[in-house]
Amino acid sequence: MRDYKIETEKRVAFIKEKMAEAHAKGLVFGNSGGKDSALVGILCSMATENVLAVAMPCHSKRNYGEDMDDAVALAKAFGIKMITVDLTATRSELTDAVDIELSKAALSNIAPRLRMTTLYAIGQTRNALVVGTGNRSERYMGYFTKWGDGAFDLNPIADLTATEIFEFLRYLKAPLNIIEKAPSAGLFEGQTDEQEMGVTYKAIDEFITTGETDPESKEIIERYHRVSEHKRRMPTVYGE
Fold first, then answer.
1. Is there a domain that residue 181 lies in?
2. How many other C-beta atoms can be found within 10 angstroms of the C-beta atom of residue 223?
3. For residue 220, what is the enclosing H or E element?
4. Domain assignment of residue 236, yes or no
5. Residue 157 is part of which domain span?
6. Where residue 62 sits, what CATH number does that domain have?
7. pLDDT tens digit string along 174-201?
8. CA dihedral over 29, 229, 35, 3, signed as positive or negative
9. Which of 53, 120, 162, 196 has its CA 20 to 30 A from that of 155?
10. What is the pLDDT of residues 5-21, one digit of tens each?
């Protein structure tokens, strides 16, 4: 049985330590209304009063509906200051300016990269660190955008699987709707993580923690991990 009280204390201490090392005055994170950002937001709010949650709807209708409602609920429940930066028009201007037909994957990745640009602009202005919100399961699968949600100054939940995130949120009494809704990056209408990957987080977490799962899921997981290896490495440079 995990002691989430001790885990909470250690993660909050980690955040404070990284702030002190960087001489940072605060923290900023993307508040998507999802599980990972909820846990990060709660931990950040325990580490400092100077934490800013930024909701960044971009193109997808879900960003303006359920996800925004949950982002607001999280901020209110834990006394976190929140602002909204609407990136839909920015995305449209960028795609119009690029004079080639972009692939579906490229279009989907624009939103996470615009969001990270926004967070770093705000963070630098406030002398605040940008806090990452990706979990261990996503990282193993490479289910994140390179130079988008894969970029951050620190990440206090990167070692936790999706299953452990759920358990942690229950311990911290996060809004129930956030815990119970299907995980989704909200990149396009009707998107869910598990549907897009073709495998459940339960199978992914089982494989990560035990090395075992059903043959079909194992094949998918190993393929995702293999082809996304470049995302987990620093850029290749000549002479190294």
1. yes
2. 13
3. helix 215-227
4. no
5. 4-189
6. 3.40.50.620
7. 999 999 887 665 555 556 778 889 999 9
8. negative
9. 196
10. 999 999 999 999 999 99
